[in-house]
What we know:
CATH architecture of the largest domain in chain A: Orthogonal Bundle
Number of domains of chain A: 3
Domain ABC transmembrane type-1 (chain B): 67-265
CATH topology of the largest domain in chain A: MetI-like fold
Strand content of chain A: 5-15%
Largest sheet of chain A: 9 strands, antiparallel
Number of strands of chain B: 0
Family (chain B): Belongs to the binding-protein-dependent transport system permease family. MalFG subfamily.
Oligomer: heterodimer
GO cellular component, one term (chain B): plasma membrane
CATH superfamily of the largest domain in chain B: MetI-like
Keywords (chain B): Cell membrane, Membrane, Sugar transport, Transmembrane, Transmembrane helix, Transport
Largest interface: A-B, 118 and 124 residues
Structural class of chain A: alpha+beta
GO molecular function, one term (chain B): ABC-type maltose transporter activity
Shape of chain B: globular
Amino acid sequence: xxxxxxxxxxxxxxxxxxxxxxxxxxxxxxxxxxxxxxxxxxxxxxxxxxxxxxxxxxxxxxxxxxxxxxxxxxxxxxxxxxxxxxxxxxxxxxxxxxxxxxxxxxxxxxxxxxxxxxxxxxxxxxxxxxxxxxxxxxxxxxxxxxxxxxxxxxxxxxxxxxxxxxxxxxxxxxxxxxxxxxxxxxxxxxxxxxxxxxxxxxxxxxxxxxxxxxxxxxxxxxxxxxxxxxxxxxxxxxxxxxxxxxxxxxxxxxxxxxxxxxxxxxxxxxxxxxxxxxxxxxxxxxxxxxxxxxxxxxxxxxxxxxxxxxxxxxxxxxxxxxxxxxxxxxxxxxxxxxxxxxxxxxxxxxxxxxxxxxxxxxxxxxxxxxxxxxxxxxxxxxxxxxxxxxxxxxxxxxxxxxxxxxxxxxxxxxxxxxxxxxxxxxxxxxxxxxxxxxxxxxxxxxxxxxxxxxxxxxxxxxxxxxxxxxxxxxxxxxxxxxxxxxxxxxxxxxxxxxxxxxxxxxxxxxxxxxxxxxxxxxxxxxx
Amino acid sequence: xxxxxxxxxxxxxxxxxxxxxxxxxxxxxxxxxxxxxxxxxxxxxxxxxxxxxxxxxxxxxxxxxxxxxxxxxxxxxxxxxxxxxxxxxxxxxxxxxxxxxxxxxxxxxxxxxxxxxxxxxxxxxxxxxxxxxxxxxxxxxxxxxxxxxxxxxxxxxxxxxxxxxxxxxxxxxxxxxxxxxxxxxxxxxxxxxxxxxxxxxxxxxxxxxxxxxxxxxxxxxxxxxxxxxxxxxxxxxxxxxxxxxxxxxxxxxxxxxxxxxxxxxxxxxxxxxxxxxxxx
Lengths: 527, 280
């Protein structure tokens, strides 16, 4: 590892020859702008086909603005900022704002779509086979991967042998090769599942209902389907859903986004409505949420501080130990000490998880112990911080080495001559100078560790969990807790998760802003 | 005694930390060479050595295409993001314009939103994109690269701006007086001078992309389209014990491109990591 510090200013710059013609740059610009226009035209066709006029307007506006920007000699800063900013807006700011806006809704399982979609779903789900239901030959296919792709029913009309593809949106006719029994062997655009592949996904197949005019088509087994009648029907006159056999009705409640019966019974399928600040107040007032939230917050701070501080101390220790030309084999030490940084961290997290395994983990083997590491809160917390220490110290070692080398040797020598001991010289001279240089990196490291999802999700997954609350474990960070709420097994609650993520955002932003204010770094921004 | 006080303790500290650093890596190496290939039979010192795990990994799984996908995506995304970031850093460091301060601070702020929670929005967005433009939709290189490039401006831009600030302004001013246009100043004078920070941000972006798990997990569902992190995760997600040797073999192979990039850029690394902060 060559660690030299040539400041940029000491390197020699080669200014361009003033008489150099600028023609090639001009051509380059024309080619790039031409490409941009070509891509925009390519992107426009699907938008026109789908009548997505808003999208088309944005596309035309952006392209026109780009062409103007790079053809006018004005607006020089914008020329440099535009490419990154457009991508930033499209793939970060827009999704983040969209997520933030869902914090004010009940978006989640059972509240995904519009009311009309909820009505279709309720009607389709209530379909049952009645005497005289039409029978079809069924072939299960997919448009993607056989194990995970979206399922499609290929349904063969018994009379005409016409094949239609059906999914949750309805039926569309397709071109297909059909056997005499009505089974489809090949269809353009679809992959037909074998019986083995289909049986692996039988749950999804049973759940899939293809809406039709009078009800829906559902599977009975893997090769037959029937068209049944809806048992529950939406009645617009009373804005309610009525059961055709029992006569019971559920009235639409627009503030909850649900159909509620007179006796308080609710239908599982609802729709997305705005709920105001109730997701936010729920975090603070619901004792089942606010208790774990505070506990997790405290641990989250401890985790971020210990991870950042621990890696810093360990990395600094390495850097100081090797900051002497008299240490033999210094280069080899450095290469080996940095090695953990080169290993893929996601994989090493999983390896560490298995090293902490109670029964055949390496750590219990080496020490001859029998500790259930992820079973107790204290040992699990110790374990995840130890793992972070291993993953994180090489980075701190690197930056501390660089910073140490940037401190002029005369400074420490002068203090030595003045009679200061090595420890005093380090504490009074070296450390303060190091902190000036490294505080911004420590702050960003803190912000990163505060939301270090992988560190928990790939090791303990939040375990151990208290018996009374399977949703919030001892090593859970706010971010893994939120992830479980948003995507976990108990049903997705995106709106609520978005509200928590806004809290996380505010916490990290405030902490970082306060720390930044105290560093020189902040002054640079204002210069 | 004097030697112990001045040099000896340095070896002591270094060796202690070295042991801590190497144990997991040695464990991975020996598990990868372990002929049985299971977790329960893996020890720190291998009981035998065979390349069975490697041949199984290359033969039975789509490791080759995972590797290719990861390299292409990480290399393209990190190179492009370094370039985009350098462009922005130049504007922030050398140009004075309205909204500069706000722009810099909001770059920092937007990073603090737990981004993966936007994954639902990203999923919905790319469902539409896949319908309209399958070439940049789910399971494609370009879609994922574009998505990663959304984060090109961020902490790296700050790091770069700090480094740009250390290059004396007189250099580009004199070039401007000599008749150089602003692209010439940027490409011919500044970019060569800030090479260390380009190398460092490139390396950080590369490591970050190779390790990225959450977004790729939602984005890449076809077996052949997966990246290393998703593919290897799949190996141990189901059969943790039986596939452990294969998983470790894959981990070692995954480290190779990172080590190569590291070697390639190493002479800049320490320079760039701190320079933005130290020399300001």
